Amino acid sequence: MSHLDDGPRSLKRRRETPSAVFRPEIDPSRPASLARQLYVALREAVADGRLEAGQRLPSTRLAAKEWTLSRGTIAEAYDILIAEGYAVARHGSGTYIMSEVPESVPKGGGGQVAAAPVTGRVLSDAARRVCTVGPSLEPQKLLPFVTGRMAHDERTAGLLNRIAGRHMNYAFEGYGDIQGEPGLRSAIAAHLAVSRGVRCTADQILITAGTQQALDLAFRILASPGDTVIVEDPCYPPARQCLALNGATIVGLPVDREGIMTERLVEGALRPPAFIYVTPSNQYPVGSVLSLPRRLELLSYARDHGCWIVEDDYDSEFRYDGHPIASLQGLDQAGRVLYTGTFSKALLPSLRIGYLVVPADLVPVFRAVRPALDRCPPTFQQRVIADFLNEGYFPAHLRRLRERLRVSRDLLAAMLRARVAEHLAVILPDQGINLTVRSTGTWSSDSAVSEAALKRGVVVMPLSRMNVASRDTSRLMLGFSGLSEHEADMGTRILADVFRRGAFVGGAARA
């Protein structure tokens, strides 16, 4: 008789525990699965104290009856609790809440987690270095003169969409080649040979996620933490941040109308660096072109001192006047130049396809290091671009785009000269998608002008943000890619009004 009494009494005791009378809030219309909702409800009940540590959870049979859920759903939720350390299964006894629940259990209140006091944050030295070399290029709204915008081309968009349809079958996809799709690499090698005089085979090319990944890969391989690296001053901010992240000691050389000033290198005033990072075809951000004599001096220096040159040719397709000077890589006889480019400006930034050309003897090294950072580039985008190049669409696309950009450049320059010539001297670029302006002497703080203009909805980027050692605060950069006539008209009128309303001297605007 006692044996028969024990069962019901035991069952009754279990039903009277908080876990038995607990009622989870489950909504079948939510996107989360029922099991996931039940798991979250149980976890929050533990955090709230509604379910205590060490309590036995209802059996799946009992819970199914009380909670109107399937036993499979309940078992799945219990399994998640067990896997994450909130519960333990005892053979022949049931599932119990752990006696010591993890301290990181989120608190209740509808899933909202109270903010913990931020103390004792530990960051790497590399992260701190990045934070001290200046701001990154943060995403900008589509405002007049913002850099990085691209003009939409209906014909090209239609072609890309049609080509993309060929490659949408993912059934047979796997990991691709470490260096990228052979078809795309061959197409790039052919394009670079004709357009930029680059001498390479497809085997020397690595496809990357834009120029930034190419630079990161090259910087990691060519220099060790603490090594000296020479850059242009001012310098492209993401490249400088990448160098800081990799622990380089950065030395800036000034830039003038003929590009980076190589005199200090030739005179031996500097210790030979691990490598020199340059944007010779269109110096970012000033816009000057490295002259042929300086190109030859740079190549001679690299050969004589055993250092590398990283050539960033990010927008070489957009040359408006005259013929482009051959790439450094094409002039290099000693195999000291690594060349990088991108399709972000010429096609679409969202494709995230760039490329890096390395000397043949370095290919095995890059193939060995690449998988540690990125197993392989995405094959879908590569195949689309490869077809676009191989089927001969790229030259016509570039001609259309180049003409549109030339019109935008000339329109912006004309409006600036008509409306703000008293304050800005326009430097018309022969290449690229941005132009720079210099103070005529009426203002001396580019950051103050930039802040005032941004409050009015216009983006003019202060070049002082990109200085390495220079103290020049008299230049601004304006983008004209994707710029409509309406935006150019509105933006220049606002900029003129900004100068009328304020005096920008010594880092602040004076009304």
From TrEMBL:
<dbReference type="InterPro" id="IPR000524">
    <property type="entry name" value="Tscrpt_reg_HTH_GntR"/>
</dbReference>
<dbReference type="InterPro" id="IPR015424">
    <property type="entry name" value="PyrdxlP-dep_Trfase"/>
</dbReference>
<dbReference type="GO" id="GO:0003700">
    <property type="term" value="F:DNA-binding transcription factor activity"/>
</dbReference>
<dbReference type="Pfam" id="PF00392">
    <property type="entry name" value="GntR"/>
</dbReference>
<dbReference type="GO" id="GO:0003677">
    <property type="term" value="F:DNA binding"/>
</dbReference>
<dbReference type="Pfam" id="PF00155">
    <property type="entry name" value="Aminotran_1_2"/>
</dbReference>
<feature type="region of interest" description="Disordered">
    <location>
        <begin position="1"/>
        <end position="27"/>
    </location>
</feature>
<protein>
    <submittedName>
        <fullName>PLP-dependent aminotransferase family protein</fullName>
    </submittedName>
</protein>
<dbReference type="InterPro" id="IPR015421">
    <property type="entry name" value="PyrdxlP-dep_Trfase_major"/>
</dbReference>
<dbReference type="InterPro" id="IPR051446">
    <property type="entry name" value="HTH_trans_reg/aminotransferase"/>
</dbReference>
<dbReference type="InterPro" id="IPR036388">
    <property type="entry name" value="WH-like_DNA-bd_sf"/>
</dbReference>
<keyword id="KW-0032">Aminotransferase</keyword>
<dbReference type="InterPro" id="IPR036390">
    <property type="entry name" value="WH_DNA-bd_sf"/>
</dbReference>
<keyword id="KW-0804">Transcription</keyword>
<keyword id="KW-0238">DNA-binding</keyword>
<keyword id="KW-0808">Transferase</keyword>
<keyword id="KW-0805">Transcription regulation</keyword>
<feature type="domain" description="HTH gntR-type">
    <location>
        <begin position="32"/>
        <end position="100"/>
    </location>
</feature>
<dbReference type="GO" id="GO:0030170">
    <property type="term" value="F:pyridoxal phosphate binding"/>
</dbReference>
<comment type="similarity">
    <text>In the C-terminal section; belongs to the class-I pyridoxal-phosphate-dependent aminotransferase family.</text>
</comment>
<dbReference type="InterPro" id="IPR004839">
    <property type="entry name" value="Aminotransferase_I/II_large"/>
</dbReference>
<keyword id="KW-0663">Pyridoxal phosphate</keyword>
<dbReference type="GO" id="GO:0008483">
    <property type="term" value="F:transaminase activity"/>
</dbReference>
